[in-house]
Amino acid sequence: MLVAERLNRLGGRASSEQIDGHIVNIGAIAIERGGVFEETFDLVGVPLDLREPSPATVFYIDGKVINVAKGGWGMLLGTFTKQAAKIGAKFADARGGELPEDKLTTKQWLEQYTKNETVHAIFRNLCAAIFAANSDEVPARAFLVYFAQKGAFKRFGFCPRGTVGLWNDLGAGIRAHGGEIWLNASVTAMHAEGDRVVSLEIEHEGATKRVEAAAFISNIGPAATVALPGAQALGAEYLAATQRELKPAANIVINFATQERLLDVPGLVTFGRTRRLCNMGELTATCPELAPPGWYQYVAYAVPCPAIGDFDEKAEIEESLTDLRELFPGFAKAKMLSVRVMRGDWPAQRSCSGFDMSQYTPLANLWNVGDAVKDYGDGGTQACAYTGREAANKAIALLGA
């Protein structure tokens, strides 16, 4: 097995970098426990180095911390609307398979039951935190599948060496089982014969190398895959489908540190009424190694309006920072580490949940994995891990045929 990675580190949009003595994560930070992700580490005999916060998630609304683990959705929504029971019943219906039509957005679905601004803000920020899109962009069917059927991100942790530490561990496990990993290795062309890929051209260590294999898995997303020279073998219809069906979603990731704790909460905090800010985590509450002594390190996520489509990057960043200033007066003294807008070729989601393509391609030995080919209504690292397992199974079945 060969893994070709374009960057000089593993992890892609869920990795880490060093900034001013801090280990700063890029993109995703919270890694789900259990399920396919943990199974993958077990498969190569590598421990999953995560620390779970407790409580894992809370809400911060009107200056109050609300721990939903103690009362669930009913307690949270019942604080703000008399329609909490009706909304809760719809979640129960979704668990039983009764779902709204495809075209109804989460916002439109919720408007049938309540006009309360705080409730709408909570749902908007849940959509933003999980799917990197607004509630008027995420299909209600996808939202309900995730929160009512998929289990909805209940257990997760942070790596004390930064998220890249997990990928370095996994890479070591792959090498220990005879696999190869090439860093700084860019795929520059694809060669196909008939209905199969026969080789790739890869730029590595100053040379172009032609790599032949019986099966190929792409983790760059369908849109980038069809842009490769030679990818015309996938056909015009497949190319058109990537342009028609995929809806990349954007977010804004703000990393900063303070010398006074802003909020004494170890896990992720989801907000109520905000302009753009959806959630935030103090990583040093569980992983003090990420920051120099005396510093509390945070990552805050915001989602622009719109998240699917074009937006004014400078204005959206300012709206996000204004939220932080208003919610936390201590933010005025923060040391800014990075502000990263994830969009375009480096999006928060290669396609918003509900708008994914199939893992299959028109070429019989090529499959896509990642956050543009997720199972319907799925999200997070667990969803990507699931696509990886399914693609591996397809490749094994093909090779054994």
Structure description:
By secondary structure, this protein is α+β, with helices and mostly antiparallel strands. Among the domains are: 2-14 and 163-245 and 360-400, FAD/NAD(P)-binding domain; 72-149, Alpha-Beta Complex (Polyamine Oxidase, Chain A, domain 2). 31% of the residues lie in helices and 23% in strands. It is built from 11 helices and 18 strands. It has helices at residues 35-43, 72-78, 84-95, 106-111, 117-131, 140-149, 164-176, 222-226, 236-245, 313-327, 380-400, and strands spanning 2-4, 14-19, 22-27, 31-32, 57-61, 64-66, 156-157, 180-182, 186-193, 196-204, 207-212, 216-218, 251-258, 268-271, 277-282, 296-302, 335-342, 366-368. The strands form 6 sheets. The protein has a 7-stranded mixed beta sheet. Strands 9-10-11 form a 3-stranded antiparallel beta sheet, with no helix packed on it. A two-stranded parallel sheet has the order 1-8. Helix 1 crosses helix 11 and helix 3 (84-95) crosses helix 6 (140-149). The longest helix is centred in the last third of the chain and has 21 residues, at 380-400. The chain is globular, with a radius of gyration of 21 Å.
Give the gist of this structure.
By secondary structure, the chain is an alpha+beta fold. The chain has 11 helices and 18 strands.
